Amino acid sequence: MRVAIIILNYNGRHFLEKYIPVLSKSVKKQMAEIIVADNASTDDSIAYLNKNHPDVEIFSFDKNYGFAEGYNIAIGRVKTEYVLILNSDVEVTPGFLEPMVDYMDANQKVAACQPKILQEADRTHFEKAGAAGGMIDVLGYPFCRGRIMDYTEKDNGQYDNICNIFWASGACMLVRRDDFIDYGGFDSAFFAHQEEIDLCFRFNARGRFVSAVPQSVVYHVGGGTLNYNDPRKTYLNFRNNLLMLYKNLKPKHLLPIAIVRWFMDYMAALVFLMKGDIKNAKAVVRARWDFYKMKSDFKEKRARNLEISIAKRIPSAYKGSIVFAYYILHKRRINN
Question: At what angle do helices 195-205 and 231-248 cross, to 10 degrees?
């Protein structure tokens, strides 16, 4: 068995019922095992699996550890060469696993990869959480090939080339199990959101690669746990993005980026406020305050990351500001 497919579940019986049968039919049993790591669900997820999918292994946790620590615990329990981190609201396609495994077998410096991720509801368009591969701009704002801000492109085969990207989506990420462990796994302090970008930042900074393998295709519902406009999601994305930059940026890059981000983040809060979205405006402000309160806890992590980083500069795929490109230049696709 070379791959452990791990699905983290919290009260997601409806997704398990819909997508586990598809997954079971789409993978070769001699290649992969399916594991559901349950974050102390209060619904009947476990009972459903025991009755209908006795071949699926279950890791039952004593509490909800969140996405980051939940996967850390689960991955620590397996011994396979590869781990596929798979959201419960993802529908896979037949043979989706082989292209990613084959590519990583042939490219030992690649630590992680992702498939092409399309919308489950509209299968002609890319999905927000990963699309055709995650990128990052000079100020640390993440975006994707095929998705900038809220704009998602139609899939016309424009991203069907295998290429290196900055981050692979936690919705569906194949990672070398030993690399995941050796590079520190997900940061449990993040709880959820952008932990995969933080991990991939470490991969890039230490000379490893992350790739998109679009010959593999999956469909993602998206927002299965938190709606994209949920203030809790806004809070976690803003806070964790700042923590990620603090942990990983070299001093000469951190200060100027921190200054610009102070203005831009409060501008985002003002935009929410002008739209009458008080909850999301408060979420941005609270994220920044909590970031400052948490910084001292991250000093050792930052020192460690900078000590073993070999990259001379932030490995950014886009040298400008994606916010400026999108809102001022009206760009809907970045060609690099």
Answer: 20
pLDDT at 6 over 80: yes
Residue type, 259: I
Looking at residue 336, its pLDDT comes to: 54
Q: Which residues have CB under 8 Å from 10's CB, separation 6+?
A: 38, 39, 40, 41, 64, 225
Average pLDDT over residues 266-285: 96
Tokens of 114: 């992702």
What confidence category does residue 227 fall into, taking pLDDT thresholds of 50, 70 and 90?
Answer: low
Buried b (16+ CB within 10 A) or exposed e, 296-324: eebeebbeebeeebeeeebbbbbeebbbe
Q: Which two tokens stand for residue 181?
A: 């462990």
Nearest alpha-carbon partner for 171 in 196, 188, 189, 147? 196
Q: CB–CB of 168/202 below 8 Å?
A: no
Phi-psi region of 173 (alpha: psi -120 to 50; beta: other; left: phi over 0): beta
Amino acid 225: pLDDT: 57
CB 309 within 8 A of CB 253: no
CA distance 302 to 86: 28
**Structure tokens belonging to residue 151:** 């704009």
Rounded Cα distance, 41 and 32, in Å: 25
Q: Measuring CA to CA, which residue among 233, 229, 234 is closest to residue 269? A: 234
**Average pLDDT taken over every residue of the chain:** 94
Joined tokens for residue 69: 């620590």
Under a CB-based contact definition with an 8 Å cutoff, are residues 81 and 181 in contact?
Answer: no
- Report the residue count for the chain: 336
pLDDT-based confidence at residue 226 (cuts at 50, 70, 90): low
Instruction: State the pTM of this model.
Output: 0.94
Q: Which of 283, 325, 308, 265 has its CA nearest to residue 257? A: 265
Distances (CA, A) of 4 to 7, 96, 217, 257, 312: 10, 14, 18, 38, 34
Tokens at 103, concatenated: 């590519």
Q: Tell me the Cα Rg of the chain.
A: 19
